[in-house]
Amino acid sequence: MERYRAKDKNGRLSFVDVNRQGFDAQLEGLDPQKALDYIHARDAKGKIVRGAEAFIWIWLACGYKVLPLLAQLPLIKQAARVFYKLFARYRYKISGEKLVCGPECDHTMI
Questions:
Q1: Please, how many CA atoms are within 13 Å of residue 27, restricted to the half-sphere of its CB?
Q2: What DSSP letter does each residue of the chain carry, written as one string?
């Protein structure tokens, strides 16, 4: 299967488009429903996090120090989870992208 990947300038991140035809969430160790709903991050040991926590890992991999530290403060972390869930639910309306599947697949945000 051809994979679409783009790497950061230091080669620490690899981005995978889960909307690409042929992507199999289960082969990647992901819940197929949640793969469409949330951004996921996997570290070198295979641990997976999703949503706002994934951004903390991504920022750390990119070398940011203050942003991930702030994002881990309890109130900010809770707010980030809420805002991420809202963003994830309405991202197609915000970006103008089309859903991978429509009402026929009964996809709802968890």
A1: 6
A2: ----EEE-TTS--EEE-TTSTT--TGGGT--HHHHHHS-EEE-TT--EEETHHHHHHHHHHTT--HHHHHHTSHHHHHHHHHHHHHHHHHHHHHH-PPPSS-GGGT----
| Per-residue pLDDT at 41 | 87
pTM: 0.68
Q: Are 80 and 71 in contact (CB under 8 A)?
A: yes
Of 18, 10, 16, 15, the residue nearest 61 (C-alpha): 10
Token pair, residue 1, equals 């299967």
Q: What is the pLDDT of residue 10?
A: 66
Q: How far is CA 4 from CA 1, 43, 55, 62, in A?
A: 10, 19, 20, 20
- Alpha-carbon 19 to chain mean position: 12
- Count Cβ atoms below 10 Å from residue 30 Cβ, excluding itself: 19
